[in-house]
Every structure is written in structure tokens, then in C-alpha cells.
Amino acid sequence: MAAVFSAAATAKADDLHRERLAPRWTASVEALMLGRSGAGSQSLVSLVPGDVPWWTPVGPNTSNVPGVEVLNSNQLHQRLAAGPRIAVSYSDPSGYGVELSYFNVLGLKASRSIGPETPGQWLVMKAPGNFWQTQDYAYQSMVWQDETRLHSLEANLRLELSPRVTLLAGVRWLQLHDQLQGTLDPADLGQPMWKFNVPSRLSDAVPLPGSSVVINPPFWTSSTTNNLYGVQIGARAILWEIERVSVEGVLKAGLFDNHATQTALVSMQKQIYPTKAITDAAAFVGQGGIAAKYRLSDLVALKLGYEALWLGRVALAPAQIQAISTTRTAVGATGVNCRSSTLLQGVTIGMEYAF
Questions:
Q1: Cβ distance 236 to 161 under 8 Å?
Q2: N or C: which terminal CB in the chain sees fewer CB atoms within 10 Å?
Q3: pLDDT digits 0-9 by tens, 252-272
Q4: pLDDT of the residue at 254
């Protein structure tokens, strides 16, 4: 009997020794390659027949003929862009722990050009009020670009329910910046004096001989910045494991306060008119991912995975066009449209080290 108690005591001591030696910290470095879809639905370019006058005091003209839409903001799908993610976590033998993580993706871009492969057609963009834009000359295209930047910083408490399942609860900050810009390309070959000949049609939109090149400013720029502050809950679980290979999944969801700002720079007769608006609104964030790990040793592992991040009730640049009011001499923001949603998804690859 004494031998049995002695063996049990020895085994318990060995377990405590291994527990003390077990790694409590884990650091990981990853590269994220994310693309973005979901830029709202806003008409950006419509085609109007070239024999419709650019402007007349009365009667149909390019400002009031509906035209046929050929470009919508929902066609601006941003391709994969890379960014870093750095994370560190601590696990206590009691089952409690903490984790801190930061990542950014700064180079999300999309660009679409319409024209001049549409001969005999006006390229028209309209906004609330008196604003409308056409090409200055028939050889020009209307180019729209959308660029997005994302930052994320989060801190979570961890509770290990079992060796396979860990609950998460914490705070998070995200910043989503989105900019939409419309330009005419290439530059004007001189001032478009033909616009003063009423009525004038697309066939009249030709440079005067000897005209100097005129640099066009972007005719429309909308920018939004969403600063989201909130709380989230989630879970992390080992879904499958065999020898050195394991598959891990994570889900998170949170409620956030969105401090959103929109700014606009609108060009009318080559003069820039700025405007700005700020608001606070409720927003939602959901995140999910799955990753495969291969352990090179007890302390080092390689990771390859898929990740998706959904942001709801945020301000995206295309939606702000309808929140701008224009007259012939002024531009004003009527508010910030925070009713958009967007999805970022892609692959992750990296390494983690336990110590």
C-alpha cells in the first residue's frame, strides 16, 4: 500500500513539474492577404447619347437625361493586399489568460475606367443638387478609384474550458478609412470653351488649335473614417488534431460605437469646394477564421489559414455622394451615411513561438 501512495505522489509531483515548465507565453507573427467586397450601390457613370446637348436653358440636356448606367460602386472589388499581424498571449495554469493582437491592411485598391471606347456617348456622373460631370473632351475616360485602409487592435481575457476550447471576452478598436475619387483622364488639351456654345453636343467637344494643356483636379473625392470602439466575445477551439498537425477555429462578435467622419472635395469649374460632417452610430463586427498548424517542435509552429471580417453599419465613401448637397456655388454635407456594410476576407500565413 505504501508503494502505491509513493507512486501516486511521485506522479503528482511529475505533473506539477511539467506544469511549471509548460510554456505560458505564445507570440505569433503573420502576414494577412485580404480583399474587400461590398462598396454599396451608388451609380457612378451613365451613358447619354452624344446628340443630347450638354446644356440648354430649357429642354433635355445631359444634366437631366437619365442615361444608362455603366458603372456602379458595387463593381469596385478590391484585390488582395498584404499586411502584418502581431499577437502575444499568456496562459495561466489556472485556465485564465490574456491576449493582445494588432494588424493592419493598408493597400486595398480598386479602379475602373469608362471610355473613350464609347464613341458618341456622354459620360455622366450626377449628385444631389446642381452637380453633374461629363468628360470635357471626347477622347477622355472617366476613372473611379476606391482605396481602403484598416487597422485593428484588441485585448481579450481568456478562459480555458478544456484543452480544446477557450472562451474570449475583451475590448477592440478598429479604424476603417475609405476614399472614392473620380477623375478625367488624360488631361484637358486646353480650356473647354465649347461649353459656352449653347446648344453644344459631344461632337463640339474638341480642343481649340494651339490650346495649352490644363490639369484637371479630381472632380469628386469622398473620404470616410470610421473609428469603432467596443466590446466583443468569442471562442477559440481545436477542431482536429493528429500528431504534429492541428486545425483551429475562432469566432468573435462585438457591438461598437462608430465615431464616423466624412469629407468631400467637389470640383466645379475647376474650383474645389470642401465640406465635412461627423456623427456617432452603433456598429457591428463579426470575425471568423480557420487555421492549420504544423509543429516544427514543441515550441515552434507554422500556420496557414483563412479569415473573414465583416463590418456592419459603417460609413463607406460611395454612400456619401447622396449625403452631399450642391448648388452652383456651394457644397454642403447633410450628414454621414453609416448604413453600409463590407466584408474583408483572405488568407493568413505565419509562425508562432511558445516560451
A1: no
A2: N
A3: 999 999 999 999 999 998 899
A4: 98
Determine the Cα angle at 164 with ends 285 and 301, to 5°. Answer: 85
Q: Which run of H or E residues covers position 4? A: helix 2-21
Rounded CA separation 263/180 (Å): 11
- C-alpha cell belonging to residue 100: 493582445
Measured CA to CA, the distance from residue 53 to residue 72 in angstroms comes to 24
**Which of left, alpha, beta for 185 (phi over 0: left; psi -120 to 50: alpha)?**
beta
Q: What is the pLDDT of residue 22?
A: 67
Question: Which residues, in sequence order, are CB contacts of 204 under 8 Å at separation 6+?
Answer: 54, 194, 197
Q: Are 125 and 64 in contact (CB under 8 A)?
A: no
pTM score of the predicted model: 0.91
pLDDT in tens, 152-182: 999 999 999 999 999 999 999 999 999 999 9
Q: What is the pLDDT of residues 206-249, one digit of tens each?
A: 888 777 788 889 999 999 999 999 999 999 999 999 999 999 99
Backbone angle region of 190, left / alpha / beta, with phi > 0 → left and psi within -120 to 50 → alpha: left
**Residue 45 near residue 124, CB atoms below 8 Å:** yes
Q: Indicate the CATH number of 24-354 among 2.40.128.90, 3.40.1550.10, 3.90.190.20, 2.60.40.420.
A: 2.40.128.90
Q: Is the pLDDT of residue 13 over 70?
A: no
